[in-house]
Amino acid sequence: MTDRVIPIADVTTRGVPVPSEPLQSPTGPLIDRRGRPLHDLRISVTDRCNFRCTYCMPKEVFDKNYRFLPQAALLTFEEITRLARIFIAHGVRKIRLTGGEPLLRKDLERLIEMLAALTTRDGKPLDLTLTTNGSILHRKAKALVAAGLKRVTVSLDGLDDAVFRRMNDVDFPVTEVLRGIDAAAEAGLAPIKINMVVKRGVNDDQILPMARHFKGSGHIVRFIEYMDVGCSNGWRLNDVVPSAEVIRRIDAELPVYPLEPNYPGEVAERWAYRDGSGEIGVISSVTQAFCRACTRARLSTDGKLYLCLFAQHGYDLRALLRGGAADEQIAAAIAAIWRERDDRYSEIRGAATAGLKKIEMSYIGG
Ligand code: SAM
Ligand code: SF4
Ligand code: SF4
Fold this sequence. Notes:
globular; single chain; 28% helix; binds iron/sulfur cluster; binds S-adenosylmethionine
């Protein structure tokens, strides 16, 4: 993996504090080489996790010898907030905190409080959300809401305890995640999105139990095609259950019909139960690439900007921050990077992408 260091010209300020007023130029909406604006920012707050999901952080790779980032390498909350404010000045409206397991980051509530105080370019509240494995959500839900979190996505790969324990590979029980979902709903984070990665022959028998369980709950299960992120999960196309098949299987027992997207470029395709008892979603990165509408940037735990989930290199914004660059210089660097963006991995997946050294999802953020 090679990282790009951005040269800083004419650096005059050091240790710039985080101001609260909106940024002046050079800001403004950005469009990449394929006409896509920058609307979403995913921020990985830790590369560590208490699970070892076989499709994300397989034990054989992420073992006791694996070198996670040292504390000093992590962006501080002040650095994250400062960058968030610059991204917002460029048109970002939605920020998702992720990881690794974001709830493992110490004092995360403080970061949420800082980010929740930011507003979008048109003065609206920021759409601030978080993706978690739910393992300690029951303990944190109230504090997260008090800090200003509005929504949450919880990952859960099945209801059968044995299947779930096999997938998280640390023997973690389903009941604790369900407890976290209930606590989050009680704390005011409902409706909750529930992500299930489907792997053929491993947990595809959980599609219907998951649909049945959450039907009528108000929560929205989203079935995700298993993706070839990173280089360590041994991905094979045969392991993918296409979303069309997921919908066929559910529809046979619980009839569904397609819904319009909530907004252009929505990643999940929406389906509603015909009896009016709620909706589900499918995310089809493998069989129906949605790169054409991809408005997402990612900030890694150590402050590198990535333009695609399958990228091979990032742009070192932390070097700018710690090198004393002014907000305007960082804003100009981000603009130059986004304007050159041409990524569309899922659309060209195949021979052209085989063997690429992609960064791991736990580091870049899902
Ligand atoms: N630890 C948190 C969690 O699991 O929700 C947040 C980080 S995780 C990397 C974010 C999302 O990526 C999760 O919903 C996870 O299921 C999904 N994910 C991880 N590896 C994946 C893969 N190979 N294919 C599809 N989704 C994947
Ligand atoms: Fe951890 Fe989330 Fe990856 Fe599972 S998917 S190993 S919970 S980061
Ligand atoms: Fe966006 Fe890259 Fe995914 Fe395409 S493959 S949708 S460009 S993150």
